[in-house]
């Protein structure tokens, strides 16, 4: 690689025409550049050869051989922490749900007394109590009606008879399964002069089965 | 009984692999996805096709032979599971990606727990990674190619292109597939890298 020095250029300017100087300068520059590129190409080729031989050496040092296609081994899939964790979590959730619902259904937790979230269970339990109350009320009504009926018989008062009938009818609404009450109703209607209704209740009294 | 003859011929066919062998990667992956008897054969052909390269790729990442087998096994099992579900447009990039992932996981596990195997220092002392003749030294002297590349100022992509092409043995086209750039980019990267490595061959002194 050679470049023109300042002296060279001055010397050339003295001896050559400007056109010639330019042409000569171009030629010498081209030569210098070409030689530089050639050298780079040669070095690139050398680097290529070097890498080729090094790569070949590496490839020969590490052959794959006749390594067969690997089969799944049990210990490769035994990482249960990664593989089975979601299933364990799902199972745990299911067991939790079942145990909580079991405690809730059986009432072992005593929670039905603690809050209002279980009121419908209380409502179911209150139904028999209501029936008992109704029966007691019906009994009281029947007693009062009997007293009124007795008084009406003595005094021959139609008002008292009507009052007794009202009591008996209300008691019949509350507790229809009473043979005595049916007899009272039939008797009261008879006294009131309504034989068809008396006959109806008498008929019921006759066919009643305790 | 034409169908019966066909069935008998199919059952007696010893090597249906010869037909599969001529297929390209995409068709083989489709066979794997279809499942059944063809699945194993197609996958085995895929494995045979890229076995050498995958193995050398694993070794070029400084994984010992013993651990390399584990890594290769995990890679192939993972690929089989993946190919049963999906059919990618190329096999090689997926395979290399999976291999990189498994190697990273492998070294992560090494750092996490002591399995009574080699430590990272011992492993680097084994010098599995691509070793090349030292540029200026005794004839038997070897240096790590990565260290050499780092010294010459190669970028990661340039170093990767050189390793994949020269040491692992992929063609330029395959390197382009793996690195997801065009072939010309790969050639340019390798040329620049070789320019940076110009001095290492030692021929410069001879001139």
TrEMBL record, chain A:
Top-rank lineage group of the source organism: Bacteria
Gene3D superfamilies found in the cross-reference section: Tetratricopeptide repeat domain
Protein name: Tetratricopeptide repeat protein
Automatic annotation (TrEMBL), chain B:
GO molecular function: DNA binding; sigma factor activity
Keyword Transmembrane helix among UniProt keywords: no
Domain RNA polymerase sigma factor 70 region 4 type intervals: 152-197
InterPro entries associated with the record: RNA_pol_sigma-70-like (IPR039425), RNA_pol_sigma-70_dom (IPR014284), RNA_pol_sigma70_r4_t2 (IPR013249), RNA_pol_sigma_r2 (IPR013325), RNA_pol_sigma_r3/r4-like (IPR013324), WH-like_DNA-bd_sf (IPR036388)
Sequence intervals crossing the membrane: none
UniProt keywords, alphabetically: DNA-binding, Sigma factor, Transcription, Transcription regulation
Single biological process term from Gene Ontology: DNA-templated transcription initiation
Keyword set includes Transcription regulation: yes
Database matches in Pfam families: Sigma70_r4_2
Family that this chain belongs to: Belongs to the sigma-70 factor family. ECF subfamily.
Protein name listed in UniProt: Sigma-70 family RNA polymerase sigma factor
Upper taxonomic lineage: Bacteria, Pseudomonadati, Acidobacteriota, Holophagae, Acanthopleuribacterales
């Amino acid at each position: 690689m050679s470049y023109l020095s300042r002296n060279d250029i001055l010397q050339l300017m003295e001896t050559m025409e400007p056109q010639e100087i330019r042409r000569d300068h171009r030629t010498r520059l081209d030569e210098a550049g070409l030689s530089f590129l050639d050298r780079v190409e040669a070095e690139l080729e050398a680097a290529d050869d070097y890498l080729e031989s090094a790569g070949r050496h590496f490839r020969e040092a590490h052959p794959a051989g006749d390594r067969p296609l690997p089969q799944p081994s049990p210990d490769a899939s035994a990482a249960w922490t990664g593989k089975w964790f979601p299933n364990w979590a799902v199972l745990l959730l299911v067991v939790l749900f079942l145990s909580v619902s079991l405690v809730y259904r059986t009432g072992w937790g005593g929670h039905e007394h603690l809050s209002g979230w279980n009121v419908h269970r209380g409502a179911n339990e209150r139904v028999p109590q209501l029936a008992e109350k109704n029966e007691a009320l019906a009994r009281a009504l029947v007693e009062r009606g009997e007293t009124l009926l007795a008084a009406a018989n003595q005094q021959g008062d139609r008002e008292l008879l009507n009052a007794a009938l009202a009591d008996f009818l209300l008691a019949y609404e509350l507790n229809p399964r009473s043979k005595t009450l049916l007899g009272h109703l039939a008797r009261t209607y008879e006294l009131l002069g309504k034989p068809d209704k008396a006959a109806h209740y008498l008929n019921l009294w006759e066919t009643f089965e305790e | 009984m034409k169908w019966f003859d066909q069935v008998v011929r199919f059952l007696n066919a010893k090597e249906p692999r010869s037909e599969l062998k001529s297929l390209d990667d995409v068709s083989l992956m489709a066979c794997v996805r279809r499942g059944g008897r063809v699945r194993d054969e197609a996958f085995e052909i895929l494995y045979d096709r890229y076995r050498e390269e995958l193995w050398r790729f694993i070794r070029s990442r400084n994984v010992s032979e013993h651990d390399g087998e584990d890594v290769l096994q995990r890679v192939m099992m993972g690929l089989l599971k993946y190919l049963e579900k999906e059919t990618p447009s190329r096999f090689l990039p997926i395979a290399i990606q999976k291999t990189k992932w498994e190697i990273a996981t492998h070294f992560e596990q090494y750092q996490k727990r002591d399995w009574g195997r080699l430590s990272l220092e011992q492993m680097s002392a084994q010098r599995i990674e691509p070793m090349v003749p030292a540029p200026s030294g005794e004839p038997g002297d070897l240096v790590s190619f990565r260290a050499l590349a780092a010294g010459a100022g190669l970028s990661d992509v340039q170093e990767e292109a050189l390793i994949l092409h020269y040491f692992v043995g992929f063609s330029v086209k395959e390197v382009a597939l793996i690195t997801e750039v065009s072939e010309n980019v790969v050639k340019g990267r390798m040329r620049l890298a070789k320019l940076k490595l110009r001095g290492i061959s030692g021929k410069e002194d001879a001139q």
